[in-house]
Every structure is written in structure tokens, then in C-alpha cells.
Amino acid sequence: MVATDNINDDEAFDLYRKYISLRHSDGDMYPPEREQFEAFLSNVWDCTRYFRFYDKSELVAVAVVDALDDGLSAIYTFFDPEAKKRSLGVYAILWQVQHARELDLENLYLGYWIQNCQKMSYKSDYRPLQVYIKNRWTTLV
């Protein structure tokens, strides 16, 4: 893993383009464009970190994470969609959990969740699962 302050380079964009093209060609991020990539994942509040995961010298995943006072916020993760057996998305989340622990942070926020959206359903695989409803955190069982 390599931590960087930005991902506005060809290596990261090429992986992002591959990810969007193969995993999200039915969404509004398709076709992937450099300007959209940079605007979407830029470090506007100076709290964003980019964790690059390599297999030897090949970039295979990037986790975009905001560092908060009480935890990490998983903004977006993209990875090589052709490496399905490697479960790179799961790995990135579990790595972020461990990294938050190493930083003595209490939480990893997986972000906005639409319960009936299949592409967001992975978020319910992690426990404890809390949702913010009516100005309070509620644990789902």
C-alpha cells in the first residue's frame, strides 16, 4: 500500500476508467472522463487521502478516504474488475478498518447507503452496521 495526497495521474485514471467501464457502464459516471474523475475525487477540504494497492508494480486498487476526528470515511474505492477472485473491494474495506484501528479511530464510515440499491448492498455485510436516521445513529441487527 502506498499513501498519496492526490490521484490526478494517468495510472490512477486508467484503473478508474477500466473500473467504471466494466462495472458501471449503466450509470451516470459512464463514460469515464478525466475532468469528472478529478472533480469527483479531488482533495477539496485537505482531509482526503488516497491509498494505492499494488500487486508487484501493477496498481490494482485505490481507496479514497477522508480522515475525520473520530474515524475514516470511505469515499470511493475502485479496483481492477477483472481480478474478481481477489475480492479487492472487500480487501480495501477491511484494510480501512485495520488502518482506523491503527490510528486509534473509532469508526469507518462507508458512506451513503440506499438499501434497495444492489450496487450498495455490500455495505450491509459489515457489522456493527449503524445508520443515521432522524439525527441519531441507530444500530441495525
What do these coordinates show?
It is a single chain. By secondary structure, the protein is of the alpha+beta class. It has 2 domains: 2-109, Aminopeptidase; 114-141, no CATH class. The protein is 26% helix and 30% strand. The chain contains 3 helices and 7 strands. It has helices at residues 10-23, 34-41, 88-102, and strands spanning 2-4, 48-55, 58-67, 71-79, 107-109, 129-133, 136-140. Strands 1-2-3-4-5 form a 5-stranded mixed beta sheet. A two-stranded antiparallel ribbon has the order 6-7. The longest helix is centred in the C-terminal third of the chain and has 15 residues, at 88-102. 17% of the residues are buried. The model has no long low-confidence stretch (mean pLDDT 92).
Strand % is 25-35%
Rounded to an integer in angstroms, the radius of gyration calculated over CA atoms is 15 Å
Helical stretch count? Answer: 3
| Class by alpha and beta content | alpha+beta
Q: Tally the beta strands.
A: 7
- The CATH topology of the largest domain is Aminopeptidase
